[in-house]
Design a protein that fits this description.
The chain is α/β, with parallel strands linked by helices and about 425 residues long. About 25% of the residues lie in helices and about 20% in strands. It contains 12 helices and 15 strands. The strands form 3 sheets. It has an 8-stranded parallel barrel with strand order 8-9-10-11-12-13-14-15, surrounded by 4 helices. The protein starts with a helix and ends in a 9-residue tail after the last helix.
């Protein structure tokens, strides 16, 4: 008891290294923020309960670390760990790498510009850098401390759009949220095994004739069979962006297609209730049709009162657009507000993102720090509305090299937004959003 009281009085821990493990003296309440830096650039942080931590290896780099007590203690001394480069085989060749088994190959489908995802290509090993003293940590201004929000379990969630990036993906996603949105997913075991809930985006099949060109009976049967195979699926999203001409053809927003979507929602609802009763997953319906500046789609199909009553929530994809930078970086919050006002339903933001490459059809290009700030601020806003059930940001990894919507690069390097999402999950202030 006395030892615990004494450690609580200590404000600054003393940091040291044993092998590749960080160790420090007790301080504060026992929770700590570990921050890392490579070549003068902050690359991530983690929250740790305890007095030791083994960081992820960074082959070929000398990484600097410092820690502080949570929520807002002073930083400790800085220590370094030199990670060796990947080992070479005989004759200087890289030994063969084991390929990660993906849960399932991603299906080919038409894509908007920002939806390009391909499995990451292998990269050559990093070269051994010259041994140098790492630069000191940059001084950073602290954000005003925000107390963690006490919320009932399940009242608000954050997560990502992801899928099919290999066996390390589910564990990565679990560090950042509690829900993942998957496009036409297979068996959900890899994600559910780590404790993630899954929104199944039953996206299509797409038809250039619009929703009226879809075989409703076959679609409903596919959804029922999927839920039978995955009885713990959290939610089923009925079609992806069904009002978007990029997937559903030039007449996608016709009256016939809007009415067809309303009928499909009723048919899916009736089948889920008949087969699964109270154990059925949530049924989510597109309100904006995939548009980032209009809710005409939802306002039209919801004239069918039965369809609106049958769904458990409506989805929105409020990308910020390519107009004024000061408003674009906030996302189109007005779109979300009007969706709730008109539908009187919980809003599930199943896509929104801020790309580090662009501009794209729906977004400006942002720096890494702007991306991190935008994601963090959008999540804070959504959580305080009381009607947004959750946000699955787009997305996990960049679709190609050179930047994109991901919180990781195409090759898997973590961007600043990765750390921002960790802070969101833990209800901490975003220290890298500056």
């Amino acid at each position: 008891m006395i030892a615990a009281l004494l450690s609580a009085l200590v404000l600054v821990p003393s940091l040291s290294v044993s092998g590749k493990t960080l160790q420090w003296t007790p301080a504060g309440s026992g929770s700590y923020r570990v921050q890392e830096q490579i070549d003068g650039t902050r690359t991530g942080s983690a929250r740790v309960d305890g007095t030791s931590y083994t960081p992820e290896a960074q082959p070929g780099h000398t990484v600097s670390y410092r820690i502080r007590t949570v929520p807002n203690g002073e930083w400790s001394n800085t220590v370094t760990i030199a990670f060796p480069a990947s080992k070479k085989g005989k004759h200087g060749e890289e030994p063969p790498k084991e390929e990660e088994e993906a849960p399932k190959e991603e299906k080919e489908r038409p894509k908007k510009e920002h939806h390009e995802e391909e499995p990451p290509a292998e990269e050559p090993p990093a070269e051994e850098p010259p041994a140098e003293e790492p630069p000191p940590f940059e001084e950073e201004e602290e954000l005003p401390e925000e107390p963690p929000l006490e919320e009932p379990a399940g009242s608000f969630f954050v997560g990502l759009n992801a899928g099919y990036w290999g066996s390390s993906e589910p564990g990565d996603l679990k560090k950042l949220g509690t829900v993942v949105r998957l496009d036409t997913p297979p068996k959900l075991t890899p994600w559910e095994a780590v404790g993630l809930k899954v929104i199944a985006d039953e996206a299509g099949p797409y038809s250039k004739e619009g929703v009226s060109g879809l075989d409703h009976h076959a679609y409903v049967e596919k959804v029922v069979n999927f839920v039978k195979a995955n009885p713990h699926v959290y939610a089923v999203e009925v079609l992806n962006e069904p009002g978007g001409s990029w997937f559903w053809g030039g007449s996608s927003e016709s009256g016939a297609n809007r009415e067809s979507y309303a009928r499909l929602l009723i048919e899916v609802h009736d089948a889920l209730v008949a087969n699964f009763h109270s154990a059925r997953p949530l049924e989510l319906a597109s309100w904006d049709g995939g548009h980032d500046s209009s809710n005409a789609w939802g306002e039209a199909w919801s004239k069918n009162a039965t369809a609106l009553a049958d769904v458990d929530g409506v989805t929105s994809h409020p990308y910020g657009g390519t107009g004024s930078r000061s408003s674009a970086i906030l996302g189109n919050r007005r779109l979300v507000e009007s969706a709730h006002t008109a539908s009187k339903k919980p809003v599930y933001i199943t896509e929104v993102g801020f790309p580090t490459k662009g501009p794209t059809g729906d977004s400006l290009q942002y720096s890494e720090i702007e991306q991190a700030w935008a994601i963090f601020q959008f999540a804070l806003w959504a959580r305080t509305t009381g009607y947004v059930a959750g946000v699955t940001f787009y997305g996990y990894r960049d679709g190609t090299e050179g930047g994109g919507y991901g919180v990781e690069t195409h090759a898997g390097a973590k961007k600043l937004a990765f750390t921002a999402m960790q802070d969101i999950k833990e209800s901490l202030p975003c220290l890298i959003c500056q």
